[in-house]
Model the fold of this input.
Amino acid sequence: MTSTVERGRFISVEGIEGVGKSSNIEVLVTHIENAGYEVLTTREPGGTPLAEDIRQLLMHRGDEPISGVAELLLMFAARSLNVNNNIRPALQAGKWVICDRFTDSSRAYQSGGRGLPMDMVNQLADWVHADLWPDLTILLDAPVEVGMARAGNRSEPDRIEREEHEFFARVRESYLQQAVAEPDRFVVLDTTRPLAAVQADVVALAQHLIEDNQH
Ligand code: Z5A
Done:
């Protein structure tokens, strides 16, 4: 008799910079682990040694311009590595996967922000991860000024962080449109509230998915 391992759940966390992805992923992971599940936490771009190298190219390169298309292709090259070497094997082994950004980031930044056609992003998504999409996407939302002020308290901005306010406003708008288009997958949380209140919502969402998994 063969025993089949139940596929784990896949959660992505999205939002413009400084909205609190790291701060909320921490409590999300702790809650799911405390419920008895093994969790793989990963991030994009990155997550595998080669994908992390691509991240370095994208964030801290020199003066050579990177076109929007080159940026998009590098994001998806890194995503292909992360999906094949991390995410799919973990889900198949029954682990839960928490991903700090996924393809919705490419839709928001490279299409919404840079202006590339959404269809281009969606075709690459089909190539790279086909029917694999998060079971739940938590969109942490705040006005650009709030995210920028929080992020501004940290270290030197990277290449994408040096973009102007209007760029991030387009990114945020694209995220909000995605959430409206896919209400079954997205949950939008207002992160202008105190961190503890946002974290309580994140834990409640995780608990809902855990209970759903047990039925
Ligand atoms: N990118 C892309 O263009 N296309 C793609 O396909 C992908 C990515 C996958 C790297 O992302 C860049 O890659 C990103 C998009 C692009 N560029 N930008 N911008 P990243 O996720 O690594 O970098 P980031 O967006 O700058 O995120 P971050 O640095 O990890 O920030 P965060 O996790 O969202 O925030 P945090 O560190 O948890 O919180 C920031 C501060 O705010 C911290 O002091 C917290 O204590 C505080 N905080 C958080 N929440 C609250 C609340 N509610 N109240 C008060 N203070 C708070």
Notes: The pocket of Z5A is lined by residues 15, 17-23, 44-45, 75, 100-101, 105-106, 109-110, 150-151, 153, 160-161, 191, 194-195, 198 (CB under 6 Å). The chain is about 55% helix and 10% strand.
